[in-house]
Write a structure and sequence with these properties.
single chain; about 475 residues; alpha+beta; Immunoglobulin-like; 4 domains; four-stranded mixed beta sheet
Length: about 475
């Protein structure tokens, strides 16, 4: 008897263990009349991107089709056919099971069976799309009136007023959905991108000037409705815009302000959680590719603070090493730091030093006379140098090639009136210090030889110089 009891208890525990390890399965069925046969793709949204995760080949659309998937992440999903998106829908849980019915000719009138989530979502989408069509038509009308009246504000005002009313209707539509269906995943997604209302005792303006307290409250409470522990909120096609909007609307676009704001926001997120990973990689990727002054400083900060090898188990080693290498390449020439001194001879052997140049703005141009792109761009760069020399611009043109015979011949042919410098042994150290790859490379320095702009594109050089301080 004792053995039987033990066996029964063991069997119960064993069965519970098996049950606990069985992954949840979602069954998503579709009956869409008039749909063409072929491959139908299932995908989901994340971080502003659409990801395909499965597909079925539908021979007879009338019979319908289904996806059975284990461990689906709850979020906003889509179906596509022939490369075109058909419609979106919501998967509320990893064990969701429902059927979507409708017509390919009227995808704005879909119906969901066994899914209150999608019944509410499809009704909302129908209203939203109808409103979107009205907004598009009103925007076109505003454009037509603007062109017809050559921008007459008085003539455009009534149309603009109606357009703003439509925008408010869209906002009201989203608020109504979150109020009417608060327990649905989509309502929680909509709420997560809605900054809270500012207290009534705080006014946007004081004495016709912006109220700093009002702006500060908006900044401090921007993410109050986002539950950073709920990673489901990331799986849609709009949260990334809300995230970007914080930095665009509430942060001064200067390196120190951006760094402080990023650290504050990331600190709100569970470390190495879904939101943390999303925020870190979105910011790193943006500032890695950004050529705006100061973006390098922000990128290096992000790499140093958030991309340590032992602290990022979610990122592969190759990516970590690539980002670390790029951060290291920036360190010696960060925007805002003093440029390393340059001491090189000109074509006649006379030595010149960067820190001996007395000018409100100094331009460094790294190039090679054997580089075809340099040959094409250097005359244009020189013309811009001439345009700004009257303001006090001084330029050092730095040859990166060791073959001085070609360099001296090239310089003699050009007859440039700026400092042409080179070294018989090459300038590999300087190339590394200034990341002088993909020539020509242009730096702009202020009167103290601090780096104001780096790797300026030749076609944007005039614009960059126009923003410099010439005093």
């Amino acid at each position: 008897m004792t053995y039987r009891v033990v066996f029964v208890l063991f069997a119960i525990v064993f069965c519970q263990a098996i049950f606990a390890q069985t992954p949840a399965v979602a069954t998503l069925s579709f009956q869409i009349e008039g749909l063409k046969g072929g491959k139908i793709t299932l995908g989901h949204y994340y971080g502003g991107q659409a990801y395909r995760i499965d597909s079925v080949v539908v021979a007879n659309p009338k019979e319908g089709f289904a996806f059975k998937r284990e461990a689906l992440k709850p979020g906003l999903y889509f179906l596509s056919s022939g490369g075109s998106r058909l419609f979106d829908f919501v998967v509320a849980s990893a064990s969701d099971s429902f059927t979507v019915r409708g017509s390919a000719a009227r995808l704005n009138a879909l119906a969901a069976e066994h899914s209150e989530e999608n019944t509410a979502y499809f009704a909302f989408e129908k209203e939203r799309k109808a409103l979107e069509e009205k907004i598009t038509a009103q925007e076109q009308l505003l454009d037509m009136v603007g062109r017809a009246t050559k921008g007459d504000r008085e003539a455009m005002q009534p149309v603009q007023k109606d357009l703003e009313a439509l925008y408010k209707s869209g906002d009201s539509l989203a608020i109504a959905f979150t109020n009417n269906y608060p327990s649905t995943l989509y309502a929680q997604m909509l709420l997560s991108v809605r900054p809270p209302e500012v207290p009534k005792n705080l006014k946007p303006t004081l004495r016709d000037k912006p109220n700093p307290a009002y702006a500060r409250w908006q900044r401090n409470h921007y993410f109050d409705h986002t539950d950073f522990k709920d990673e489901r909120l990331l799986y849609n096609n709009f949260w990334h815009s809300f995230f970007d909007g914080f930095f665009a609307q509430h942060v001064v676009p200067k390196p120190d302000s951006l760094i402080r704001a990023m650290d504050e926001v990331i600190a709100k997120m569970p470390r190495n959680g879904a939101f943390y990973r999303f925020a870190v990689m979105r910011l790193v990727q943006f500032f890695e590719q950004n050529e705006a002054p100061g973006a390098d400083r922000v990128f290096v900060h992000l790499a140093d603070k958030y991309l340590k090898k032992d602290d990022t188990p979610w990122l592969d080693i190759a990516t970590l090493e690539r980002l670390a290498y790029k951060a290291d390449a920036h360190r010696s020439n960060l925007t805002g730091s003093l440029a390393v001194n340059i001491e090189l001879p000109d074509e006649e052997g006379k030595m010149h030093a960067l820190y001996e140049v007395n000018a409100p703005v100094t331009m460094l141009v790294f190039y090679s006379p054997l580089c075809d792109h340099c040959k094409e761009m250097m005359p244009k760069i020189y013309q811009i140098h001439l345009d700004y020399s009257a303001k006090g611009l001084q330029t050092l043109a730095l040859n990166t090639d060791k073959q001085h015979v070609y360099w001296k011949k090239f310089v003699a042919q050009q007859g440039w009136q700026w400092l042409d410098l080179a070294s018989p042994n090459g300038i590999e150290t300087l190339e590394k210090q200034f990341s002088a790859v993909n020539l020509p490379v242009i730096y702009l320095l202020d009167k103290d030889k601090r780096i104001v702009a780096k790797r300026v594109q030749p076609d944007k050089l005039g614009e960059a110089l126009s923003r410099m301080n010439w005093k």
